[in-house]
UniProtKB/TrEMBL annotation:
Transmembrane segments: 15-35
Organism per entry: Coemansia spiralis
Record's protein name: Alpha-1,3-mannosyltransferase CMT1
Top-rank taxon, per record: Eukaryota
The keyword Transmembrane appears for this protein: yes
Sorted UniProt keywords: Membrane, Transmembrane, Transmembrane helix
Family matches, as Pfam families: CAP59_mtransfer
InterPro entries tied to this protein: Mannosyltransferase_CMT1, Nucleotide-diphossugar_trans
């Protein structure tokens, strides 16, 4: 039995029993479910190595238990690649070579959390895997949390301790700032995003890319793919696609923010996602395409758009401006500054709950074991954007959904 086969066969309580044994037996245990990419390990046998392995296996056992308590499932199975072909795994090594060769500019991971115990064990695990893949010194984790009443704070405290011990740069803030009683939702969300971005705003020069995550289920591979597409296309904003279930059907979620290259809304139904034929044909082939705007649960941003006195920030609408989402306004600001390489990557499929996550694993939505497209065929010819963009305003204080009449905003 190979080492991988042994690891793959460990499930449920047997995993817990085996943790101690595995620590003794293994160096690099934590990367067991990631692509076989070059990972960071302290020189084996050193005290640093032994200490790090201990800290990590303790944290992973805790995450395993926590996720199991909430969902009654082995959370590692979702990102498992035990059934992927050798050819596929080999193609990923080639594809992500430039991200893993140690030359990648540091990546800034950002998230705002509030009562997110359901997704957090997976998020912490995937962040640690990415740190291994890129190198511990090539990642910064910034999380801002406020007022959670579930296990979010406890998980964050332990994550914080683990990152301290592993020497992975981070700023994890857990606060109890009551949300002002009456506030414009977008003004508040923009403020939270800027809090999480703070360490980059004050020392932006260090970072090449930002990955901003919603409370989604994802695998390290999703982050790698967005970083890869961002790098090969020199993209300013690169997004996956997020999904939820509505009336029993799985559909594209972020229709409030996403706009196709003509500035029009995308459809919930994937088969008619965009009214643009070029876009549709790329979507169906799993190739990236240019859009005017996207966020979709996970966005990779070229850090240079935040640099300097004129650097972009998240914001709510100005007076007399259509009161769009802080993410829509961010896109419009990008275009106005000439940062027009905004792309969506259909292979990165994200969800906010377990039923959607499981539906996305069906072959129609999850062709993960197909060989990747040749990056050359995937090259996008970027074009100028639309003059006008469809906007659905959210005006009311305390409103949660758009409440004003649809309108068009000009980008010029
Ligand atoms: C791998 O394939 C086997 C056999 O089809 C299946 O039982 C198992 O659940 C699969 N594992 C994962 C993680 O999908
Ligand atoms: C890696 O980067 C080099 C230099 O920019 C480029 O020529 C090459 O195509 C890249 N490889 C991949 C797999 O992206
Ligand atoms: C994380 O650790 C730092 C350094 O020990 C500490 O200042 C901070 O309060 C911790 N944050 C959380 C959320 O535990
Ligand atoms: C659809 O998008 C492509 C490229 O993204 C563009 O060349 C074409 O003009 C668009 N179609 C329409 C009807 O705007
Ligand atoms: C108590 C509190 O302020 N909670 C807010 C924290 O931020 C989230 C958004 O990330 C709000 O939804 C909460 O209401």
């Amino acid at each position: 039995m190979s080492l991988r086969a042994i690891l793959a066969s460990l499930h449920g309580r047997r995993y817990l029993l085996m943790v101690g044994l595995m620590v003794l037996a293994l160096v690099g245990i934590v990367s067991m479910y990631s692509f076989d990419l070059k990972t960071y390990t302290a020189p084996s046998g050193t005290r640093e190595d032994t200490m790090m392995q201990k800290v990590r296996s303790k944290f992973h056992a805790y995450l395993y238990k926590t996720h199991y308590k909430i969902h009654k499932e082995d959370y590692r199975a979702h990102c498992s690649q035990e059934n992927f072909s050798e050819a596929f795994v080999e193609s990923t090594k080639q594809r992500y070579m430039n991200l893993t060769n140690g030359d990648t500019e540091p990546v800034f991971l950002a998230a705002n959390l509030y009562n997110n115990e359901k997704i957090l064990p997976n998020m912490a695990t995937q962040f640690l895997k990415l740190a291994d893949t890129l190198g511990h010194s090539r990642i910064f984790i910034s999380i801002y949390e406020n007022g959670s009443t579930d296990r979010t704070k406890e998980i964050l405290r332990r994550f914080n301790e683990t990152l301290n011990a592993l020497g992975i740069a981070h700023r994890i803030v857990a606060e109890d700032t009551p949300k002002p009683e009456h506030i414009h939702r977008i003004e508040y969300l923009a403020k939270l995003r800027n809090y999480a971005m703070e360490p980059l705003y004050s020392d932006g020069a260090k970072f090449g890319r930002v990955a901003f995550l919603n409370d989604v289920y994802f695998c390290q591979a999703d982050l790698l793919e967005l970083l890869f597409q961002s790098q090969t296309h020199g993209a300013h904003l690169t997004c996956g696609e997020d999904f939820d279930i509505w009336k029993g059907e799985i559909g594209f979620y972020d229709t409030w923010v996403a706009r196709n290259i003509q500035g029009e809304q995308l459809d919930r139904e994937v088969q008619i996602l965009s009214s643009n034929d070029t876009t549709m044909s790329a979507e169906m082939r799993g190739r990236p395409f240019q859009v005017q705007c996207c966020w979709n649960g996970m966005a990779v941003i070229d850090a240079k758009v935040f640099h300097g006195d004129e650097g972009l920030r998240f914001r709510r609408s100005a007076k007399d401006e259509c009161s769009a989402s802080e993410c829509s306004l961010f896109c419009n600001d990008l275009w106005r500054k000439g940062f027009s390489r905004v792309i969506m990557v259909p292979r990165v499929k994200l969800s906010y709950d377990i039923p959607s996550r499981n539906m996305l694993r069906k072959p129609l939505y999850f062709p993960a074991d197909l060989p990747y497209n040749n990056p050359e065929i995937e090259k996008i010819s970027f074009r100028p954007g639309p003059e006008k963009v469809h906007c659905m305003p959210l005006n009311g204080i305390d409103a949660i959904d758009p409440d004003g009449p649809d309108t068009y905003v000009t980008l010029l």
